[in-house]
Amino acid sequence: MIKQIDFLGKRRLAAIFSGLLLLTTIVSLATQGLKLGIDFTGGTLVEIGYQQSVDLKVMRTALENAGFEDATVQHFGSTKEVLIRLKPKEGFSNAQLSTEVATAASGAMTEKGDLRRVEFVGPQVGDELTEDGGLALLYSMFGILIYVAWRFEYKFALGSVAALAHDVLITLGFFSLLQLEFDLTVLAAVLAVIGYSLNDTIVVYDRIRENFRLLRKGSAEDVMNISLNQTLSRTIMTSVTTLLVLIALAVLGGEIIHNFAIALTVGVVIGTYSSIFVASPLVLALGVSKEDLMEPEIEGNDIDMMP
């Protein structure tokens, strides 16, 4: 028989580990915040392609000399393509700004670049996207709270929402700590993390509820430990296969979806951890008992808990 792992016996160590991660997240968000992309801050994005590799230092110097000191320059897909981000500039229309930037950038090269894409987001639109993104997170959490409370019991609802908040905060903290750009694609990834983590947690909760009704002997901690062990192989297989796809996207998918894949990768790892070491221990700490979920006992149908 496979040895049973005492997951809940390690809940204090897990609580310390999660506390340290959350503390690091809060400090990072408070001191340096998120590096918001143009979707949220507003500004202009210009993509230019060349026939030869681009030296970013030379490109930045050329843009600074042209008066674009706040320009952010990076390779996009390959060393022959550059992506330039600029904050809103008064006195310039979108067309003028893109033309000025393209001219200044080409001045750093021996050839004229191919202007491939120009996008503009106004400051007001950026503020609205920031507000709508925050509301989307809050509404999703509230909806999950109601759903889990209706399907299971309010203690499970509180545990699942706390675990989801844990996952979201740590994912945001990762982006804040490393100062990776946070844009709409990353926000979409964070919302996807909520769905993934909740699905994993619901699978565990389903097994806990089933075992509470089947196993008449043993404490709540024993029943929850057995449930976590029974769902462990499913949890690991789902997470590993998902991570293989996400790592491939992060490495080979290009700049457009790179941060999206990174956010999902972090979220899947943290979500897998939280479904085992956060969601279930929180429910146990809230005092869940067999009486909360167990159906009335029917004589002759008792099934003793296996050792």
Explain what you see.
With 307 residues, the protein is an alpha+beta fold. The chain has 11 helices and 6 strands. The strands form 2 sheets. It has a 4-stranded antiparallel β-sheet with strand order 3-4-2-5. The protein has a two-stranded parallel sheet with strand order 1-6.
CA-atom Rg in angstroms: 25 Å
Distance between the termini: 10 Å
The best one-word shape is elongated
Characterize the largest beta sheet: strand count, sense, and whether it forms a barrel: 4 strands, antiparallel
Order of strands in the sheet with most strands: 3-4-2-5
Q: Let me know the number of strands.
A: 6
Q: SSE order in H/E notation? A: HEHEHEEHEHHEHHHHH
The residue fraction in helices comes out at 55-70%
Number of helices: 11
Q: Strand pairing plus helix content: what structural class?
A: alpha+beta
Mean pLDDT: 80
What's a concise summary of this model?
This protein is of the alpha+beta class and 307 residues long. It contains eleven helices and six strands.
Map the helices and strands.
Elements: H1 11-31, E1 35-36, H2 38-41, E2 43-49, H3 56-65, E3 72-76, E4 78-86, H4 94-106, E5 114-121, H5 123-151, H6 154-178, E6 181-182, H7 184-214, H8 220-252, H9 255-277, H10 279-285, H11 290-293
Parallel strand pairs: 1-6
Antiparallel strand pairs: 2-4, 2-5, 3-4
